[in-house]
Amino acid sequence: MIFSILLLALAADPTIRVAAGKTVEVTGLPDTVKTQTPEQLAALVRVTVAANDAGTSLLGTHAVKDGTLTFTPRFPFEPGVTYRVSAGTATHEFTLPKPKAEPATVTLIEPTADKLPENTLRFYLHFSKPMAKGDIYKYLTLTNDTDKKTVTVPFLELEQELWSPDQKRVTIVIDPGRIKREVKPLLDLGPVLEKGKTYTLTVAKDWLDANDTPLAAAFHKTFTATAADRDAIDPEKWAVTPPKVGGRDALSVNFGKPLDAALVRRLVWVEDAKGTKLDGTVTLDKTETFWRFTPKAAWAAGEYNLTVATHLEDPCGNRVGEPFEVDLLQPVGRTVETKTVTRPVVVK
Amino acid sequence: MRYLTALMLSLAVTAFAAAETKKGTPEVKSISALAFGPNGTLFVGDPVAAAVFAVETGDTKGTSTAGLKVEKVTDQIGSLLGVTAKDVTVNDVKVNPATGNVFLAVTRGKGPDAKPVVLKVAGDGKLTEFALKDVAFTAAPLVNAIDKDKERMKQVDAITSMGFANGKLIVAGLSNEDFSSTLRVIPFPFGDAGKATGVKIFHGAHGRFETQAPVRTFTTYRIGDAESVVAAYQCTPLVKFPISDLQPGAKVTGTTIAELGNRNVPIDMFVYSKGGKDYILMANTARGVMKVSTDKFAVKDGITQKTGEFAGATYEKVESWSGVEQIDKLDDTHAIVLMKTTGSTTLASVELP
């Protein structure tokens, strides 16, 4: 009964307006709206997603002031989505324009070397813009170019994708079950990468960015697999070149093998004799085998420490003093219990 | 060090406040996992904020969800949130054991500014928002110190699974940078901020190689006298270890009790009884749903030999359930599942196999 009265009263056709793309305002409603409950107002003025089933309305609040009913959605209206407003006999559809943007590109895949150990554990894919989360594995293909075949399910397909918070970098992990020795997937299916063979990791062009735009182009990284690297990282073996006193020359370190690009940027640093971390910039070079630290202030003469967190890894997951796989039949066990190790550096 | 301490202090005071329950709006930045604790407490796992929030839901009454069937559920969620279904991700589905009401962790959008939302589904199939606003909550950070370093800001520990047992919340995760295997154990009610203790989980293959082994998903189950964690590792075997082993700083090597088969990606699991026997029901991406017999779980040494006589626990595939993406136990005879079939996602109650 109330409903039919409302319909009658609405026959004058209310006016629907989208205010600043943020709220929906309806005028020309009968005076009775002033006394309606929020539920009644929600039934009177409904906002739905046009593409979806009309049965469910957007979450939001309805408020009446000076004869205008304002609907404020719980979440901002999304550009590109068409919304339908129904107020009695009046309906109105609107779509906020989607800003046009240049497509994203793959800027880098780490490790950057074109020769990678066959037990390589992870890749970092870097993009020029934030990308869309979800269903990413369908955009990735690993082909064995030597045998001209596609590698079947090479990656750990995690439901919780390993994005950086800005969604410009995603970590792809090779299925550890096909790297760890004596584990069923490796025994049954064999390794993902085999020494001596050439592979191409392809990122498909149709991977969407956060703005629903596909990549500008597909991206390929071709590399040859080399012998497995099962050695722990040993900072004692690093070649450290001290800088000259007085200038801002880089302190440089040659690791002797590539280290994990993300971890090495934050898990190796320089401390002064008091243990204070020096300010400066780190650059990586020569396929993540070289590390250079350029300080903000000129070097003073004295003793410094090159400090390394022991959870630093190489791209195969070997850590400082602890290989990815500890062979319990070998006499050398896990030896490092400390959180950091240091190498003294004298600047003179 | 002083800087770090100051940071930790400010962290404790501002973002996570004290551990005592307060009413307010938790600053939830993302939700990848949910779990229920005692008295309707909902644990919300937030990998971006690197914290778990314990929210008092006040959810004490429910009508039976045993007949629940919500078709095109992602369309309906999209309609509520003002987007199309392609911008809806259901990250987790959990049943409040006290009421049978179903809680969904949803993400609206796919970009870095995507919004986390918790939705509640009652017995009539109606979806409502469980607003994380003006709620009683406590929080536990998952890292001991937040470093403002630009490079550090890219590091996130994905939360792959959470469970509550013996007064402790257990959080499994995987870092997007290192292959760490830390299982975090947080006594609940949460104590002082930062009291999550890490336990390193290892995998011993055939008694020879030992590797770090992050846990993908797990459940808790009493095996013999020991309340245990039954877990699926990222490298696929099903393992067990006693909860009592989860001591601060401990190193725990799981006993392999089943090989789950290759290309198998376990998503969720829980324990139930049928015909006087216990089973673990496990949802997988590749092999559908598996019903694993717990008969041989009590085995002492597990699978350690390549050609050992013990082939591990047996399982059968539940053929009638396909496309299961999320699963949780509803009651003694039913589960709630989120199933994806061509073009449509359904949230429904199904009878346990």
What descriptors fit this protein?
heterodimer, A: 348 residues, mainly beta, Immunoglobulin-like, 3 domains, five-stranded mixed sheet, four-stranded antiparallel sheet, 24 strands, 8% helix, disordered N terminus, B: 353 residues, Methylamine Dehydrogenase, Chain H, nine-stranded mixed sheet, five-stranded antiparallel sheet
Task: State the order of secondary-structure elements of chain B, H for helix, E for strand.
Answer: HEEEEEHEEEEEEEEEEEEEEEEEEEEE
Radius of gyration of chain B: 20 Å
Total number of helices of chain B: 2
Note the run of SSEs of chain A as H and E.
HEEHEEEEEEEEEEEEHEEEEHEEEEEE
Signal peptide (chain A): 1-19
Keywords (chain A): Signal
Organism (chain A): Limnoglobus roseus
Protein name (chain A): SbsA Ig-like domain-containing protein
What do these coordinates show?
The complex is a heterodimer of chains A (348) and B (353). With 348 residues, chain A is mainly beta. Chain A has helices spanning 2-10, 38-44, 184-189, 261-267, and strands spanning 15-19, 23-27, 45-49, 60-65, 68-73, 82-87, 90-95, 106-110, 115-117, 122-127, 140-144, 149-150, 162-163, 169-173, 198-203, 219-226, 239-241, 251-254, 268-272, 280-285, 290-295, 302-309, 325-327, 340-347. In chain A, 34% of the residues are buried. Chain B is mostly beta strands and 353 residues long. Chain B has one domain (2-351): 7 Propeller (Methylamine Dehydrogenase, Chain H). In chain B, strands 11, 12, 13, 14, 15, 16, 17, 18 and 19 form a 9-stranded mixed beta sheet that branches. A 5-stranded antiparallel beta sheet of chain B has the order 1-10-4-3-2, with no helix packed on it. In chain B, strand 16 (215-223) and strand 17 form a beta hairpin. The longest helix of chain B has 14 residues, at 2-15. The radius of gyration of chain B is 20 Å and the shape is globular. The termini of chain B are far apart. At the A-B interface, strand 3, strand 13, strand 14, helix 3 and helix 4 of A face helix 2, strand 11, strand 14 and strand 15 of B.
